[in-house]
């Protein structure tokens, strides 16, 4: 299991803690400086810091410095959706404060509750026994179903994303994002970009809140149990189709196990208390009272395609010097052809 010490660097020298303390002093109830910051090493998108003060801990999440793609790294949207979910069946940290003024620390940022829990870097969870593993994955399934059952109108999120066919819109968006970050021509990506629109299913009318990056390492769990304390990293959230989130979970499991792939490929899951793909999908459908999902291969292919686009963006930011972890960004960029190939294979199922 990943403990906090495993994912925290030794310093947050790129964050002006004096400016943060001055801004929070009269705006955040109960806040008292000075502030010490340590940067979380995980994540390749919005830099995230643990803020330690004499009274308590907070988490600060900001946009990256330098040039970024339009509409990317929208910490303002992250703040809004998590604030809207407070009190629902979807656990999220409590949002404290949003600063949209880039003059304070050089970019927009928000401050939220620090969750005192545990995070699992990979679904195999090697430090847990089989029973606990199964319970964690079932809780992950429960929270995902609850997320897709949120009344978006009652939560004030009905305008959080445009209408129309979600997958059609997303394929166009991520193709555009990929083109903006493209560094060389990849035949696999070109084939997938052409194949996905041709395989697009008809719109079934489902319109829900979508997390956009739902996976086990974006969830925090209780230290003394398997209950979920909070869903994190809402940068890609929008109003869309729920099967995108479900397919993202299954996509992750197709990757190699270990800290690099963070998947379950080749694992005899029953021995580890882990469900097969079909069982996880069935449990999700049962919780949402859905009979089943046709043509799941398309949704899985889309998940691989979108991740390939994300990784290409990470690689481009590393080249430009804007990545949160440049060395890791270069490495991730090398996986783009592999994800495209896996997307093509999924589409053939």
UniProtKB/TrEMBL annotation:
Keyword Kinase: yes
Any one GO molecular-function label of the UniProt entry: kinase activity
Organism domain of life: Bacteria
Keyword Kinase among UniProt keywords: yes
InterPro entries referenced in this protein's UniProt entry, alphabetically: ACAD10-like (IPR052898), ACAD10_11_N (IPR041726), Aminoglycoside_PTrfase (IPR002575), Kinase-like_dom_sf (IPR011009)
Pfam families, alphabetized: APH
Domain named Aminoglycoside phosphotransferase: residues: 38-260
Keyword line: Kinase, Transferase
Protein name: Predicted kinase, aminoglycoside phosphotransferase (APT) family
Organism: Cribrihabitans marinus
Source organism phylogeny: Bacteria, Pseudomonadati, Pseudomonadota, Alphaproteobacteria, Rhodobacterales
């Amino acid at each position: 299991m990943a403990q906090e010490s495993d994912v925290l660097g030794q310093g947050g020298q790129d964050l002006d803690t004096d400016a943060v303390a001055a801004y929070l002093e009269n705006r955040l109830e109960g806040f008292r400086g000075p502030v010490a910051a340590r940067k979380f090493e995980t994540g390749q998108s919005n830099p995230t810091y643990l803020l330690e003060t004499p009274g308590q801990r907070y988490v600060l999440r900001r946009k990256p410095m330098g040039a970024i793609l339009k509409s990317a790294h929208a910490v303002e949207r992250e703040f809004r959706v998590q604030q809207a979910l407070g009190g629902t069946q979807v656990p999220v940290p409590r949002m404290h404060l949003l600063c949209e003024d880039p003059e304070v620390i050089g970019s927009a940022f928000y401050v939220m509750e620090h969750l005192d829990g545990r995070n699992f870097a990979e679904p195999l969870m090697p430090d847990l026994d089989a029973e606990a593993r199964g319970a964690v994955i079932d809780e992950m399934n429960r929270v995902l179903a609850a997320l897709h059952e949120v009344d978006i109108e009652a939560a004030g999120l009905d305008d959080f994303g445009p209408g129309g066919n979600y997958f059609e819109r997303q394929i166009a968006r991520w193709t555009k994002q990929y083109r903006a970050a493209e560094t060389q021509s990849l035949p696999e990506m070109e084939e997938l970009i052409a194949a996905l629109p041709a395989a697009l299913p008809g719109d079934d009318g489902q319109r829900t809140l979508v997390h956009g990056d739902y996976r086990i390492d974006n969830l925090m769990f209780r230290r003394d149990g398997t209950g979920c304390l909070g869903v994190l990293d809402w940068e890609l959230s929008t109003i869309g189709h729920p099967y995108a989130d479900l397919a993202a979970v299954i996509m992750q499991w197709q990757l190699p196990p270990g800290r690099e792939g963070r998947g379950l490929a080749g694992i005899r899951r029953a021995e580890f208390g882990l469900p097969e793909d079909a069982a996880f999908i069935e449990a999700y459908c049962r919780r949402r009272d859905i009979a089943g999902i046709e043509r799941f291969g398309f949704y899985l292919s889309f998940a691989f395609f979108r991740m390939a686009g994300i990784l290409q963006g990470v690689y481009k930011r590393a080249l430009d010097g804007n990545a949160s972890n440049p060395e890791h960004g270069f490495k991730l960029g090398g996986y783009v052809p592999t994800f495209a190939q896996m997307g093509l294979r999924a589409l053939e199922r």
